Structures are given as structure tokens and as C-alpha cells.
Amino acid sequence: MVVDVITDNLGANPVEELLDRSGLWALRFLMITLAISPVRLLFKNLPVMKYRRMLGLFVFFYASVHLLVFLVFDHYLNGAYIVEAIAISPAVQIGLVVYLILIPLAVTSTNKMMRLLGKRWAKLHNFVHTAALLSIAHFVFSEKVDISVPLTYGAFLVCLQVSRIILNKRKQIALLKRPHLQHDGEFEA
What we know:
Elements: H1 2-6, H2 14-42, H3 52-74, H4 79-88, H5 90-107, H6 111-117, H7 119-125, H8 127-142, H9 148-177, E1 180-181, E2 187-188
């Protein structure tokens, strides 16, 4: 995107092109990030988990670029234009909610914050699923004519969620089949 800005290679509507590209990359990285857990459960020895946080930060980076293009280049930092866009556009309203969800996820993505929040960290980071669903809705409302691309991403998200549910159920069943330690110290089958 930076090279295309410098070389003036963004087409007839450069602001819309930048909005589209930054939003699409934020969504792509969000889908890739969500795909890591099912991939990890399917392929146990694949070292993908160590990249999940970094990919999540890529989501936040591209979402921030998307927001900045909207605020600076599309609305010229004009408060009245921005408030009007928020008031009348469901796409802008949903996009703002998604960004507000992503902020605490990005801020708490450090090891120190994980330790500080404890079990609450996982509960907070489960909001990434809400952000993903709302991102699809934002994309659908942003499209003026053809919603086939956002629906394709939506179908991919549904597949990820279904696979996550199935794989987690299998994991729970496998854990239940393991021998337990009883109160008196003997193993129970």
C-alpha cells in the first residue's frame, strides 16, 4: 500500500482503495489468527501457537490503518463529518465497535498482562470471536453492490467456529476418558 501511495498507483479512487485493502488485510489476519486453534488441535506437533499473538497484532495494525484512512483521508479529521458518518452508517457503527473490541485485545497481548489478568485474560480474548462476526457484518454493510466476498469470509468464519466446537468436544471427551485421581489416591478408569 505504501509503494502504491508513493507511486500514485491506487486507481481512480485512492481513498476507497486504501480503505478496501486495509480492511481486507485486517479481516484476513483475523481469519488466520482464528484458524490457528483448529490447526493446532488437528496437527499437534505444528508450532503455530507461537505466532497467534503476532498475527493478532497484525489485525490491530491493519484495523488501525483502516480507521486512520477513514478519519484522515476520507473525512479529513472533520468532527462533524465523522459524527454524521457514525450516526447514519451501520457499517461505520459496526466498524467502530469492532475497533473498540480490538483495543483491549491488543493492549493485553503481552505476557505481563496475561499474568496480571490470570483467568480473566482468556475470557477477554474470547471477544475476538465477536469481533470476527462483527467484522463480517461491517464488510457486508460496506459493500454497495456485491456481497459475495464478505459472505465468503463469513462462510469461512462459520467453518472455523464449527471445527473449533467439534475439536474442543473431542478434546473434552478424550480428557474424560483419562484415568482420574480419586480422593483416596487410587486411579479411577
